[in-house]
Design brief:
Structural class: alpha+beta
Number of helices: 4
Radius of gyration: 15 Å
Number of domains: 1
Helix content: 55-70%
CATH architecture: Orthogonal Bundle
CATH topology: Multidrug-efflux Transporter Regulator, Chain: A, Domain 2
Strand content: 5-15%
Distance between the termini: 40 Å
Length: about 80
Amino acid sequence: MSSNYTEGLKNVLLDRELNRMLTITEAAELVGVSCTSLRRYANEGKIRVYRVGSGKHRRFRKRDVLEYLETNSEY
């Protein structure tokens, strides 16, 4: 395989992973908080949330969760 092809494939896979939608449980685990806290953060506009389905379930894009962690890190 060519280097350009491999690099392009890596970028496609990384982009796909970063755009993956997480459930509230998955996102809360990644952030290290409870589901209740993550709901509150979303309601306060601290983290972007998407509503899906007829039940309007919350979903969080992995990229947004990682950006939240980056900007709200205590380190």
